[in-house]
Design goal:
Largest sheet of chain A: 6 strands, antiparallel, barrel
Number of strands of chain A: 6
Structural class of chain A: alpha+beta
Strand content of chain B: 35-45%
Number of helices of chain A: 3
Distance between the termini of chain B: 6 Å
Largest interface: A-B, 17 and 21 residues
Number of strands of chain B: 10
Radius of gyration of chain B: 17 Å
Oligomer: heterodimer
Number of domains of chain A: 1
CATH topology of chain B: STM4215-like
Number of helices of chain B: 2
Strand order of the largest sheet of chain A: 1-2-3-6-5-4
Largest sheet of chain B: 8 strands, mixed
Number of domains of chain B: 1
CATH class of chain B: Alpha Beta
Order of helices and strands of chain A: HEEEHHEEE
Helix content of chain A: 25-40%
Shape of chain A: globular
Shape of chain B: globular
CATH architecture of chain B: 2-Layer Sandwich
Order of helices and strands of chain B: HEEEEEHEEEEE
Strand content of chain A: 35-45%
Radius of gyration of chain A: 16 Å
Chain lengths: ~130, ~170
């Protein structure tokens, strides 16, 4: 069991190193802020929520004509899942209002967790322009 | 028309909170009664389970009376996969409980309320009662649909109101 954990951890560090070596940029995850206390207007569509932007790094962005994919480090995602108290990375990405890359907001289409020895080392996020 | 929609939603929400205080959802960290208007929320790929989701469909306007009579169809969708602790095997019972809650909040007397303008809430002002009422039909339940381990149903209610002068 200890060997498996160490191998998973090694894959995580290796992925981080590869992502940094291949661009290693930062992107901003747009998260809707919790509603203001007692603000009934939001449920009636009278007020829009505030957004907070959380940095995800290291990440690599690939864009072709019809597809845009973001590879992002699982360690960065894990840190945000923990600090924002989400149940899982899937819930985090499902809740996100988009990802800001160089000022362009992309909508998250799907997320695939790349794993080694049961440990996620990288997330492949399919995006489309909002 | 918007005031009638807002009033109907607010009445249903307060009735659900009184009838079944434990039937709640968490939206962006805030706990509230398990009823929402889809068009007023952030778009989500996966609908929230165990929650009444209101959608406004067709509108007809009868201009023959002194004030135009507006009839709006409200579709109320809900679904459940049961509870994890029971491995989802209670999904039929939970759907029945949702059906019962919906029937009670919609069909309870009176099936009307004073139409209220909530626009002031955007500026910290209170909601304002208007001069006419909103009233609605009994709920009509659609057939249950099944997708994997999820049971879903859609019900409809017709909501009527008079369009007051200058009203949205």
């Amino acid at each position: 069991m200890a060997d498996l954990l160490q191998q998973g951890e090694a894959a995580l560090r290796q992925a981080d190193a590869l992502l940094r070596a291949n661009g290693g940029r930062a992107v901003l995850l747009r998260m809707p802020a919790p509603p203001a206390s007692g603000n009934e207007g939001e449920a009636l569509g009278l007020a829009t929520p505030q957004f907070q932007e959380v940095e995800l790094t290291p990440a690599v962005f690939r864009k072709a004509n019809s597809t845009a994919t973001l590879l992002v480090s699982a360690s960065a995602v894990k840190a945000i899942v923990g600090s924002l108290a989400f149940d899982s990375a899937a819930v985090l990405f499902a809740t996100a209002a988009g990802i800001d890359i160089d000022g362009v907001i992309y909508t998250v289409d799907s997320v695939v967790s790349e794993q080694a020895m049961g440990t996620a080392y990288c997330y492949s996020v399919k995006l489309r322009p909002s | 028309m918007q005031n009638a929609k807002d009033t109907f939603y607010e009445v249903m929400k307060s009735r659900l909170a009184a009838l079944d205080p434990d039937r709640t959802i968490v939206v962006r960290g805030a706990t509230r009664p398990a009823i929402l208007v889809e068009a007023n929320e952030l778009a989500l790929e996966d609908p929230l389970p165990d929650c009444f989701r209101l959608r406004w469909l067709g509108v007809t306007v009868d201009a023959q009376s002194a004030l135009p009579l507006v009839t709006q169809r409200c579709e109320i969708a809900y679904e459940t996969a049961g509870t994890a602790i029971n491995s989802g095997m209670d999904r039929g019972r939970i759907l029945s409980a949702l059906d019962a809650d919906l029937a009670q909040i919609v069909n309870a007397a009176p099936q009307s309320a004073v139409k209220t303008n909530y626009a002031g809430l955007a500026f910290g002002q209170p909601a304002v009662a208007m001069k006419t009422n909103v009233w609605w039909s009994d709920v009509a339940f659609g057939a249950v649909t099944q997708s994997g381990a999820t049971l879903a149903r859609t019900a409809t209610v017709d909501v009527m109101s008079y369009q007051e002068a200058g009203e949205l």
